[in-house]
Amino acid sequence: IWFDPFPLTALEAQVTGCPAVAFDVGGLREGIRDGETGLVLTDISEEALYQALDSLLSNPNRLALMSKRAIETARPYFTWERVASEITSYCIGQVAKENPSVPLALLSPWADSSDYALYAAAIVDSRDIGSSIILSPHGCTTEHSVPCWSVEDFSSLSQVCRKYNINTLHINIDLESVNLSKLTTALQQLHTQGISLLFTHHKSVGYSTAMEVCYRCFDTIIVHSYSAKLEVIALGVDSASVHVEQPGLKSSKDSIIVAKQQIFEGFGFETSSKLLFIFGELRPEHQLEAVLEAMVILESGGIHSSAIIVTEGDTDNLHAQKYREDLEAVIEAQNFSKRVQFQPRPAQDTLESWFHAADLVMINTPDKSHGSAHVCGMALAAGALVATSTSPLFSPFQGAVWRMTSGYQPGTSAYLLLTQPELRDAIQGRAQTLVQDSPWEAYSAAIYGEITVEENSRDTCSLSEDSTVSIDLQRQLEQAEQYVQEKRYAEAHRLFEALLNQNNKLERAWRGNGATFVAEGNYYEASTCFEQALKIDPHKVKTLCGLGLCHTRLENFRLAKPYLLEALSKDITMESSLIQLLEVSYALGEFDDLIEVLYRFVAEYPASMDMRYCLAGALFKQGNFAAAREMLKEIQIRQPEHEGAQELLNVIQEAQAGTNASRLAATIEKEAQTKDKDSTVLQSAQTTSKAPTSER
């Protein structure tokens, strides 16, 4: 035991695992956790000290437990590294008073040719100048970036966020390429500062406990397809905090496009030939040989073609060199040496010129290559005709790209695309519409403008709306909503309740207070607020969604269902309510209403294969095998790579086989019973026929 009159000087003892006893005479009061790592005596007397020491020395088990807790709590916290970091952050905090507040920061690679950097650049270009800053890796010293991290070190993030008064941090990095443990620690620290964390899930990641812990640090996760949303949910993330957004495609930034003829001349190709591009890394799983197969098929059909194999990633390792040698051997064998070139991926402007000149862009890469999806988006924005692999990465571009499948191999695909104008026009027409409807400005507004209130339900808790209220009241409501965004829940409650004390008919204030309770996970209190809001406006969709969410979370499924159905009858696009209705229907084992809603959804959004899949699942659970099978076959036609469709078809086949067997057994049993009955009747008839006439 270490006795010291001041807790501050007892810290070193606790770091060594020695419980401390001190008088409460000031000093660092929180330096000792009273009753856990030592004792803090308010009675400053020898008698009190004697009793405290006696109570500890006479109880070795308690003393050992205090020692253990002292090591666990004091040793990791009271370090010189933390002291230095905190002092630095406090100093920066003084400087921050002179800096304007920057509500948003983007943690991302920057000023290089990586797809993560290009994504970040598109985001920044779509926003007002000065509305955000880039937190770039160490060594990146561009004008508008703050270098403060590396793949092995994220310790400076906390102080940088304090310096610039950052409210929201958007993480745009490859989690599989960084020290996940150190990143997670940094994110947890940022949470304690009240910073909202947004993450863009660009590609599939392997499951691990460390990855699950990291993903749970994010308040909001943006994905680009429903299949990606399911992957994130599988990592233990609340489904309502995962939002599907169509990625930006159309850029407002003008590019200098080089004429097609100049592109051909630069490569030394004949201008009359069809120009093919294929993108990927020099690894067999990227299947760059697909473009050579396409050239062979085109040649057999009388179409002269040339190709550029655009490589990225590490091209110098032995495996990459071996794969390139194999490709060059095929090129030589097919006599394509003067018509095929290997090129590294160029700068963005050059790449856009290539896309404008291309007759076909091929991307045949696996699931974990985020760059492939970004290249696809750039190609579509430039007006190129694109053929991709069946990877889920390309799901956001449904109908705007051609999917190469086992039935439509690369060679066959290229031939059909370049010889059938109607097919080509259908794909490029859809692509043009998709590009026009997907400006980066809209994407940026969606992922930042709608990050409001509560991580668990954007639909329920998006409060801001056009309302006929006074300017002063509007300002107070917006201030309360801002508190919720900043996770200052107590202040939000106080302001909402003050407004309701003045006027208890403020539907938006009731709903806002309910949304705040939802953000805190207090669904019972939230439901009470939403019920009050519903009394004022029985038709407000967001209030109905809120009540449905609360009752679902409280497992009051029977109560949740009518609210969810009414909300979806008014707005079928309320994603959170649709997900809650799925959960409720499966919990209750009732699928009729769910099926009706899903039929309405797919009628309005026929390209949503994930909702078609949900509909097929509901039909299967209802026992309507034929309708489920038809829905799944339609999914396979539209999206052949959909793995779940085939799996569910197999399950249906097994279930139907079991049902048929049961029916057959029942039929046999019924026939047997009929035969027994007939036999009895026959015997009776025979007996009757032998009886005397009088007995008949």
Low-confidence stretches: 92-100, 450-469, 677-696
**What amount of the residues lies in strands?**
5-15%
Q: Output the radius of gyration.
A: 33 Å
What does the oligomeric state look like here? single chain
The CATH topology annotation of the largest domain reads as Serine Threonine Protein Phosphatase 5, Tetratricopeptide repeat
Count of alpha and pi helical runs? 29
Mean pLDDT: 81
What does this molecule look like?
- This protein is α/β, with parallel strands linked by helices and 696 residues long.
- The protein has 4 domains: 2-78, 3-Layer(aba) Sandwich (Rossmann fold); 97-244, Glycogen Phosphorylase B (Rossmann fold), CATH 3.40.50.2000; 270-440, Glycogen Phosphorylase B (Rossmann fold), CATH 3.40.50.2000; 453-650, Alpha Horseshoe (Serine Threonine Protein Phosphatase 5, Tetratricopeptide repeat), CATH 1.25.40.10.
- It is globular.
- Residues 92-100, 450-469 and 677-696 have low confidence and may be disordered.
Please give a handful of descriptors for the protein shown:
Rossmann fold; alpha/beta; 7-stranded parallel sheet; 4 domains; 16 strands
